[in-house]
Design brief:
This protein is mainly β. It contains no helices and 11 strands.
Protein backbone atom coordinates (compact mmCIF):
# COMPACT_ATOMS: atom_id res chain seq x y z
CA UNK A 1 0.00 0.00 0.00
CA UNK A 2 1.04 3.61 -0.58
CA UNK A 3 0.39 6.46 1.87
CA UNK A 4 -0.37 9.60 -0.16
CA UNK A 5 -1.12 13.06 1.22
CA UNK A 6 -1.92 15.98 -1.07
CA UNK A 7 -3.30 19.48 -0.63
CA UNK A 8 -4.13 21.97 -3.36
CA UNK A 9 -5.88 25.30 -2.99
CA UNK A 10 -6.47 28.37 -5.16
CA UNK A 11 -8.19 31.67 -4.50
CA UNK A 12 -9.10 34.55 -6.81
CA UNK A 13 -10.30 37.90 -5.48
CA UNK A 14 -11.56 40.57 -7.87
CA UNK A 15 -12.51 44.16 -7.10
CA UNK A 16 -13.91 46.78 -9.48
CA UNK A 17 -12.46 50.19 -8.68
CA UNK A 18 -14.52 51.70 -11.49
CA UNK A 19 -16.40 50.62 -14.59
CA UNK A 20 -13.14 50.31 -16.54
CA UNK A 21 -10.61 49.43 -13.81
CA UNK A 22 -10.53 45.99 -12.17
CA UNK A 23 -7.98 44.58 -9.73
CA UNK A 24 -7.44 40.86 -9.14
CA UNK A 25 -5.35 38.89 -6.66
CA UNK A 26 -4.57 35.18 -7.09
CA UNK A 27 -3.18 32.79 -4.48
CA UNK A 28 -2.24 29.15 -5.12
CA UNK A 29 -0.63 26.36 -3.10
CA UNK A 30 0.19 22.72 -3.88
CA UNK A 31 1.73 20.27 -1.41
CA UNK A 32 2.10 16.51 -1.59
CA UNK A 33 3.74 13.57 0.20
CA UNK A 34 4.07 9.91 -0.76
CA UNK A 35 5.10 7.45 1.98
CA UNK A 36 6.41 10.34 4.06
CA UNK A 37 8.54 11.78 1.22
CA UNK A 38 7.67 15.22 -0.11
CA UNK A 39 6.75 14.98 -3.80
CA UNK A 40 5.25 18.41 -4.53
CA UNK A 41 5.54 21.92 -3.12
CA UNK A 42 4.45 24.96 -5.05
CA UNK A 43 3.32 28.39 -3.82
CA UNK A 44 2.38 31.39 -5.94
CA UNK A 45 0.67 34.76 -5.77
CA UNK A 46 -0.12 37.30 -8.49
CA UNK A 47 -1.70 40.74 -8.51
CA UNK A 48 -2.87 42.54 -11.64
CA UNK A 49 -4.77 45.67 -12.62
CA UNK A 50 -6.79 45.69 -15.83
CA UNK A 51 -8.01 48.86 -17.55
CA UNK A 52 -10.60 48.52 -20.33
CA UNK A 53 -9.47 51.00 -22.98
CA UNK A 54 -12.30 49.93 -25.30
CA UNK A 55 -14.76 47.03 -25.30
CA UNK A 56 -12.08 44.83 -26.91
CA UNK A 57 -8.72 46.39 -25.96
CA UNK A 58 -7.40 46.40 -22.40
CA UNK A 59 -4.17 47.37 -20.64
CA UNK A 60 -2.75 45.60 -17.61
CA UNK A 61 -0.02 45.73 -15.00
CA UNK A 62 1.06 42.37 -13.57
CA UNK A 63 3.31 41.42 -10.65
CA UNK A 64 3.84 38.17 -8.83
CA UNK A 65 5.94 35.69 -6.88
CA UNK A 66 6.47 31.93 -7.29
CA UNK A 67 8.24 29.20 -5.31
CA UNK A 68 8.52 25.69 -6.81
CA UNK A 69 11.49 23.72 -5.45
CA UNK A 70 10.68 20.62 -7.49
CA UNK A 71 11.08 22.78 -10.62
CA UNK A 72 14.35 24.19 -9.25
CA UNK A 73 12.89 27.61 -8.36
CA UNK A 74 13.58 28.82 -4.84
CA UNK A 75 11.90 32.16 -5.65
CA UNK A 76 10.80 34.05 -8.75
CA UNK A 77 9.65 37.67 -8.77
CA UNK A 78 8.22 39.33 -11.87
CA UNK A 79 6.56 42.61 -12.79
CA UNK A 80 5.57 44.27 -16.04
CA UNK A 81 2.91 45.69 -18.39
CA UNK A 82 0.64 43.88 -20.86
CA UNK A 83 -1.87 44.68 -23.58
CA UNK A 84 -4.75 42.42 -24.54
CA UNK A 85 -7.37 42.11 -27.26
CA UNK A 86 -10.69 40.27 -27.09
CA UNK A 87 -11.17 38.74 -30.54
CA UNK A 88 -14.46 36.98 -29.72
CA UNK A 89 -16.76 37.93 -26.86
CA UNK A 90 -19.51 35.29 -27.01
CA UNK A 91 -22.14 34.30 -26.51
CA UNK A 92 -20.64 30.82 -27.13
CA UNK A 93 -17.05 31.44 -28.22
CA UNK A 94 -14.57 33.65 -26.34
CA UNK A 95 -11.02 34.30 -27.59
CA UNK A 96 -8.49 36.59 -25.88
CA UNK A 97 -4.88 37.33 -26.82
CA UNK A 98 -2.35 39.08 -24.59
CA UNK A 99 1.25 40.30 -25.02
CA UNK A 100 3.55 41.79 -22.43
CA UNK A 101 6.99 42.32 -20.93
CA UNK A 102 8.23 41.25 -17.51
CA UNK A 103 11.33 41.99 -15.51
CA UNK A 104 12.16 38.68 -13.83
CA UNK A 105 14.41 37.93 -10.84
CA UNK A 106 15.01 34.25 -10.08
CA UNK A 107 16.85 32.32 -7.37
CA UNK A 108 17.39 28.60 -7.95
CA UNK A 109 17.74 25.66 -5.59
CA UNK A 110 21.40 25.18 -6.65
CA UNK A 111 22.22 28.61 -5.09
CA UNK A 112 22.50 30.42 -8.44
CA UNK A 113 20.36 33.34 -9.61
CA UNK A 114 19.37 35.21 -12.76
CA UNK A 115 17.65 38.48 -13.75
CA UNK A 116 16.38 39.21 -17.25
CA UNK A 117 13.78 40.88 -19.45
CA UNK A 118 11.08 38.44 -20.46
CA UNK A 119 8.57 38.55 -23.32
CA UNK A 120 5.15 37.03 -22.75
CA UNK A 121 2.46 35.85 -25.16
CA UNK A 122 -0.81 34.45 -23.83
CA UNK A 123 -3.93 33.10 -25.52
CA UNK A 124 -7.23 31.85 -24.08
CA UNK A 125 -10.13 30.13 -25.82
CA UNK A 126 -13.39 29.41 -23.99
CA UNK A 127 -16.54 27.69 -25.19
CA UNK A 128 -19.71 28.12 -23.14
CA UNK A 129 -21.93 25.04 -23.29
CA UNK A 130 -24.35 26.93 -21.04
CA UNK A 131 -24.05 30.05 -18.89
CA UNK A 132 -22.33 28.11 -16.08
CA UNK A 133 -20.70 25.19 -17.94
CA UNK A 134 -17.67 25.79 -20.12
CA UNK A 135 -14.49 24.44 -21.70
CA UNK A 136 -11.27 26.43 -21.75
CA UNK A 137 -7.83 26.11 -23.30
CA UNK A 138 -4.99 28.49 -22.49
CA UNK A 139 -1.44 28.68 -23.84
CA UNK A 140 1.39 30.86 -22.55
CA UNK A 141 4.87 31.43 -24.01
CA UNK A 142 7.62 33.08 -21.93
CA UNK A 143 10.89 34.12 -23.60
CA UNK A 144 14.19 35.35 -22.16
CA UNK A 145 15.53 38.10 -24.46
CA UNK A 146 19.08 37.62 -23.16
CA UNK A 147 19.14 33.82 -23.68
CA UNK A 148 17.11 32.37 -26.56
CA UNK A 149 17.31 28.85 -25.06
CA UNK A 150 15.62 29.99 -21.86
CA UNK A 151 11.91 29.81 -22.62
CA UNK A 152 8.81 28.28 -21.04
CA UNK A 153 5.51 27.02 -22.41
CA UNK A 154 2.47 26.57 -20.16
CA UNK A 155 -0.82 25.00 -21.21
CA UNK A 156 -4.03 24.36 -19.31
CA UNK A 157 -7.05 22.44 -20.57
CA UNK A 158 -10.11 22.63 -18.32
CA UNK A 159 -13.81 21.85 -18.09
CA UNK A 160 -16.01 23.57 -15.51
CA UNK A 161 -19.44 22.15 -14.65
CA UNK A 162 -21.86 23.94 -12.33
CA UNK A 163 -23.29 21.95 -9.43
CA UNK A 164 -25.33 24.86 -8.08
CA UNK A 165 -25.32 28.67 -8.10
CA UNK A 166 -22.30 28.69 -5.76
CA UNK A 167 -20.47 25.40 -6.43
CA UNK A 168 -18.79 24.08 -9.56
CA UNK A 169 -16.56 21.13 -10.41
CA UNK A 170 -13.38 21.84 -12.38
CA UNK A 171 -11.30 19.16 -14.11
CA UNK A 172 -8.01 20.41 -15.56
CA UNK A 173 -4.79 19.20 -17.15
CA UNK A 174 -1.78 21.48 -16.77
CA UNK A 175 1.47 21.12 -18.74
CA UNK A 176 4.53 23.22 -17.80
CA UNK A 177 7.55 23.00 -20.12
CA UNK A 178 10.92 24.58 -19.25
CA UNK A 179 13.42 24.34 -22.12
CA UNK A 180 16.38 25.17 -19.88
CA UNK A 181 15.65 24.01 -16.30
CA UNK A 182 18.00 24.91 -13.45
CA UNK A 183 19.59 22.65 -12.24
CA UNK A 184 19.99 20.98 -15.65
CA UNK A 185 19.34 17.52 -14.13
CA UNK A 186 15.64 18.33 -13.69
CA UNK A 187 12.98 17.13 -16.12
CA UNK A 188 11.91 19.79 -18.61
CA UNK A 189 8.17 18.94 -18.38
CA UNK A 190 5.77 18.86 -15.42
CA UNK A 191 2.14 17.77 -15.72
CA UNK A 192 -0.71 18.06 -13.24
CA UNK A 193 -4.11 16.39 -13.62
CA UNK A 194 -6.60 17.67 -11.05
CA UNK A 195 -10.27 17.75 -10.11
CA UNK A 196 -11.30 20.60 -7.82
CA UNK A 197 -14.40 21.98 -6.15
CA UNK A 198 -14.88 25.68 -7.03
CA UNK A 199 -16.79 27.93 -4.65
CA UNK A 200 -18.09 31.27 -5.95
CA UNK A 201 -18.91 34.03 -3.46
Amino acid sequence: NTDVTSLAAKNLLKYSFSENLVGSWKLAALYGKTDGVKTAENYATEFRMDYAYTDQIYLAGIGGWLKDKFAGIDSRYYIGPAIGYKYLTGPKHFVTGEAGLNYVMEEYTDDTDNSYLQGRLFGLYEYAFTKKNRFSQSLEFLYDFSDSDNYNINSETAVISALSDSFSLKASYLVKYDNEPVPATLDDTDTILSVALVVNF
